[in-house]
Design goal:
This protein is mostly beta strands and 188 residues long. The protein has one helix at residues 3-23, and strands at 43-45, 49-52, 64-67, 78-84, 92-101, 113-122, 125-135, 146-153, 159-166, 177-186.
């Protein structure tokens, strides 16, 4: 194989692998929207999921998303989502985020779960491509970031990534969940 073909092939592979990481906007939550408690490029829904700049540990961007479980009074999910540009039908993708769960006192409850979802459309109708729920009951509270991810193959040229949190069904509620470094990458 000639050197120019080899170089061209390498460039195509690099571009394909970075297509989605470039199209997921503000994955580090570093840029605020007009409201500094909300990140640019993300749609936030539910209660007490806010952009935080004063929480520890500090992240490279200086910001993270924080779910204030101790302030949530209802039982509805909270979440954030983003419609991604540049998605291609048949493309296999991986969506990931780093999470950290705070410690809680005995007798109190941490959030029930964190769920990552890939959505697309099929025949013009919304469709869940893949979802991964992580139950937080036994999740580490070791002050370390832990990667959670979901993978799937897109049935159409559109993609929505979703991160949602389900509160504990009963109280007293304590603890918080921190999110940093959301990333989307092509697998093939």
């Amino acid at each position: 194989m000639s050197r120019s073909i080899l170089i061209a092939s390498a460039v195509v592979l690099v571009m394909a692998g970075s297509l989605f990481s470039q199209s997921l906007e503000n994955g580090d939550f570093g840029y605020p929207s007009e409201n500094p408690e909300l990140p640019e490029a993300w749609t936030i829904w539910g209660d007490w999921l806010l952009r935080e700049t004063g929480w520890e540990p500090k992240t490279p961007s200086g910001a993270m998303m924080g779910y204030h479980h101790y302030r949530v009074s209802g039982n509805n999910k909270s979440g954030m989502q983003q419609d991604v540009t540049g998605a291609k039908s048949g493309q296999r993708v991986r969506f990931s985020v780093l999470i950290m769960v705070d410690k809680h006192e005995a007798g109190s409850q941490r959030p029930y779960s964190v769920e990552l979802t890939l959505e697309s459309t099929k025949d013009g109708q919304p469709q869940t491509v893949a979802t991964k729920e992580v139950v937080l009951e036994e999740f580490p509270t070791d002050d370390e970031w832990h990667e959670v991810f979901v993978e799937g193959t897109l049935p159409a040229d559109d993609l929505r990534v979703i991160i949602s949190v389900t509160p504990s069904p009963s109280g007293p509620r304590q603890s918080a969940v921190k999110f940093s470094e959301a990333n989307l990458s092509a697998l093939d």
